[in-house]
Please model this.
Amino acid sequence: MNPSSNGSQGFDRRSFFGSLAAAGLTGSVLASGADALAQDGAKPAEKPAQPEKIAASFPLLQNVTETSASIAWSLNRPATGWVEWGTTPDLGKFARNSEFGLNPYEVDFLNARIEGLAPNTKYYYRTATCSFDYVNAYNKTVSAPEYSDVYSFETVGPAPEKVSFGVMNDTHNTVPTICKLIERFDELKPNFIVWNGDVCSDYMTSEVAKKSIANPNGKPYAAERPLVFAAGNHDRRGKWVRDLKKCFTTWKHDDPRFAELGCNYAFRQGPLAAVILDTGEDKPDWHPAWSSMANYEPYRELQAAWLESALSRPEIASAPFIVAFCHIPLYDANPKANPGNILDKWASYQWTCQKLWGPILHRHGVQLLVAAHQHRFSYAEPTAERGWAQIVGGGPELKGATCIHATVTKDELKLSAEMVADKKALGSWTFKPRKV
Model:
């Protein structure tokens, strides 16, 4: 008997699989052959590794106004890209972050701003990312576009009768806390989330932003629910921090006086006007810790001028409710609390900002200031001299983290705070409309 024709004893695997390949049958039959090899004690061939995606995260929707929105996403390697958008899922329009005639080339984050939108209108978008790198000035490598799923968002404006927001703060790149907060916001479904400063402890490289902001839970948590960033003192520390604007995109101001204030903005969403301020660092500019690299005093003064202007805008001034957000509190009930203008330790509250901004907030009838920084929850009722209440969120560890949430109609603003770990209520408060 010919051994080669007698079952597995004389099975010529190389000839067999070669014949299958020649016959074009390897797609389905080779798999069963691999199973036979495994059963025969041989190691099956490993599947080829899937190439790493160019985009390292889902999109981050931000800066949604009546007429614009911006989207950022992180990268695994050098790339260029754009956003495709439209009023239907068919899209058809393009937004690129071009500068001086050049389309973007980035290694950490891409972003683009969509402009020319209409208030209270639904739009659809997706990101497109192409791997791109230079061999030399005239020789480049470029891939076909890699597309995200199609997502949607709605521009802001005065139309909605009801709006809600959520607040998280002082996460200090504590990913388990960030993920738990996102889970809670998925349940509460606020219209937007304010990340009220100290998102990360520092930014020596882009990796901390990629992990903690762009992709903390491997899900598109901010692809359709906008993030609103209010900078904290720790969000100003580190070698890479000047590029943080590629991840947390800045706002554009029509008035050239305020072009520097990309972290200050005000928008109207139904009965609510939201105002975002940047308290800066928690020590004075002349503190030796900054090595002459801080220049917050004129920055805060410029914000005072902007705040007066923003609160005077018709759509803001006519809102039934105005809520301001900033990282460092503007008030502390403890008379010995560190005011942030001395060399000793760090600020408990921002005395300079209190003097510059507090009277403006009071004069324009702002009802609530949402702050952070102290890593402990507190609430202060308004007074005759300080017409705004102040609520302060908790710290980065899960046992101390808080979730602040508010629902607003034309008749009332309902504010609540709870512990993130177990949803234990910390308090609830109701505000009546402003007199406008």
Notes: The helical segments are 13-23, 26-39, 175-188, 207-214, 296-312, 314-317, 351-363.
